[in-house]
Amino acid sequence: MLTEVPHDHPLLVQFREDPYPLYRYLLSAAPVQWNDVLGAWTVARYADVVSVLTDPRFSADRTIEGSPEQQIARSMLVSDPPDHTRLRSLVQKAFTPKVVEQLRPRIEAIVKELLDAIEARGGEFDLIDELAYPLPVQVIAELLGVPPQDQANFHEWSAALAASLDPLVSEQNMERAIRGRDALHAYFRTIIAERRGHPQPDLISSLVAVEEQGERLNERELVVMCNLLLVAGHETTVNLIGNGTLALLRHPDQLARLRQAPDSISVAIEELLRFDSPVQLTGRIAHQTLRLGDRDIAAGDWVLPLLGAANHDPLQFAEPDELDIGRNPNPHVAFGRGIHFCLGAPLARIEGQIAIAALISRFPRLELAGNPVRREQITLRGIQHLPVSPAA
Question: Which of 53-57, 189-193, 274-278, 376-380 shows the lowest mean pLDDT across its residues?
Fold first, then answer.
């Protein structure tokens, strides 16, 4: 149990492995805390996190303070209305729950192919390398219209960009992120040029042609949008499948409960999202001086809503540190809240539901076969390697 808050707590290695003791302390003793190392406020309580995410006095435009994101790309993720409204309206129709549901047969087919290969080979396997990563990458690549032979290139580029989302980014990681961004941008410029001349039944062709109330995406916006959709379209889902499976394996009573009631998978996924959230924090900048909790936030201050902490707030969730796959209602903030609510949430949900349900059905005695290796990132909380065994 922590008795005081480390001044550089978001950066310490031990909290990457298990941030929840820290979150418990922040929730009880320092719900809104200034962090000198980050030059930012950390916000832990659910009500305050929701307030930051929904209050227009907080800006998502992280370039205001010359932050690292300025060097990466401006997208709807880091823009405010009216730019955000225009950009989102031009793409959101492709990610409605109704449209995403039409992808179910293809997602199920990909999961079956991956599990068939695992079963045919037999023995232990890495859940991340062989299911959690290839599934969402293949789905989003097919949706965009990226040829299969090009998908392997995305791993390195995407990982580099993901590392740049942390509150503090080393010069080396920022250089890697810029190289990854440039490679992705060059790739998508080529694909976009091809689609202008020869449209295909894919999302990139739709983005090239889309028009909403006279508005269109310009060339740079098209490239940045494709970049965002590719990276955001799979990174969180990889973490959902990995974190969620690990949570179930570490809570055999809940795993057995899910196996006995497989139709409850949609409710279970919401709890897995809450329990060990794929995205642990996000960022906003205060437009004006305001009061948050018992602290005064100055105009221009950088604020970090801790989504992972909010999802464990005892004022919002009964026994928040317990995994309960039947928890309902479950108003977690794993996908954010407000106008920046994750566009790909319906896709991540359906991929997580199909992958985890099929996995535990195919391998009824699935068990850990070694120690999980966590990713180094803080913002995107996930597992790099998760060795498991069918234990048949």
Answer: 376-380
A 10 A CB-CB count for 363 gives: 18
Give me the sheet containing 367-368, strands edge to edge: 125-126, 387-389, 367-368
Provide the domain count of the chain: 1
Task: List phi, psi (to 5°) of 133.
Answer: -85, -55
- Is 10 inside any structural domain? no
Residue 5 lies in a domain: no
Whole-angstrom distance, CA of residue 60 vs CA of residue 309: 20
Phi, psi (deg, nearest 5) at residue 343: -60, -35
CA 153/CA 377 separation, integer angstroms: 20
- Measured CA distances, 358 to 28, 131, 248 (Å): 39, 11, 14
Pairwise CA distance, residues 190 & 266, whole Å = 38
- CA pair distance 109, 87, nearest whole angstrom: 32
What are the pLDDT digits (tens) for 150-188?
888 887 888 888 878 888 778 888 898 899 999 999 999
Range of 192's domain? 19-59+78-389
In a domain, 366, yes or no: yes
Contact 317, 30 (CB under 8 A): no
Q: Give per-residue pLDDT as tens, 33-46.
A: 998 888 899 999 99
